[in-house]
């Protein structure tokens, strides 16, 4: 694990710790004597060292923000027993079945990592929100915004004073959108991110995985890559369906086309192209049956 970003003692800002798995970023917001942990992860050791970074200089972690309920994002919430846990309402109100699937997914990763975590339970959310919620950490405002698309429960965090946007699982690998729910809302979420970057003077994007994006222009380029990806995928699938391809055949062909279009071999990660194609296809199928 490495600290990608740290703030000078006594100043306000972001602390970002890169974990060993999936380029995962635990993100802290620190101001004065207060700190907020956003999606702290992944292993107990990483969570401990992240907490130490947040608590250095006598700061207290008063809030934990969970952007969504995917199992990599909720692993560290119990490490901050005095903090208020904040999440979108669909995270707080997840049913027993989805909770069990999330916990099973986490257990599988634990096994792979050799992590024992018998006391883990699904997050107990202290404060939930529907569309938006502004909370304060020291002198900093955190505008939490519900933005489903990646999952049905995803939110992002805007820090106006830091001109920063914490995008959860949006913009984690521009050009390979990581859609785990539905394509149309995913695209809508990216259009909203673009509006935020343009109107709020965003200068730094911190996704939950992989590299930070520095500068407004780079952020807009990344967002447009995601949107153009879906436009190209939708056009390719529509064309194949119109020429009589079965859904399965169209899905496979469109996924290969997206790989060729990218021109970079991403190895197993390119499986996401098939996943994205299936999600777009589900929407096109709906339209045709109307
Ligand atoms: Zn996720």
Bound molecules: zinc ion
Strand residue content: 15-25%
Total separate domains: 1
Number of strands: 13
**Rg over alpha carbons:** 19 Å
Q: Could you spell the SSE succession in H and E letters? A: EEEEHEEHHEEEEEHEEHHH
Helical region count? 7
- Give me the CATH fold name: Metallo-beta-lactamase, Chain A
Low-confidence sequence ranges: none
User: Which whole number gives the mean pLDDT?
Assistant: 95
Structure description:
There is one protein chain. The chain has 7 helices and 13 strands. By secondary structure, the protein is of the alpha/beta class. The protein has one domain: 4-Layer Sandwich (Metallo-beta-lactamase, Chain A), CATH 3.60.15.10. It has a 7-stranded mixed beta sheet with strand order 1-2-3-4-5-6-7. A 6-stranded mixed beta sheet has the order 8-9-10-11-12-13, with helices on one face. Strand 1 (2-5) and strand 2 form a beta hairpin. The site of zinc ion has 5 residues, from loops. Zinc ion binds next to loops.
Topology readout:
Layout (H helix, E strand, L loop, with lengths): L1 E4 L7 E6 L6 E7 L2 E5 L5 H12 L4 E6 L18 E5 H4 L3 H18 L13 E3 L2 E6 L2 E7 L8 E5 L4 E5 L14 H18 L3 E4 L5 E2 L1 H27 L4 H16 L8 H19 L1
Parallel strand pairs: 4-5, 5-6, 6-7, 11-12
Antiparallel strand pairs: 1-2, 2-3, 3-4, 8-9, 9-10, 10-11, 12-13
Helix pairs in contact: 4-5, 5-6, 5-7, 6-7
How would you briefly describe this protein structure?
With 290 residues, the chain is α/β, with parallel strands linked by helices.
List keywords for this structure.
13 strands; 7-stranded mixed sheet; alpha/beta; 39% helix; 22% strand; globular; binds zinc ion; 290 residues
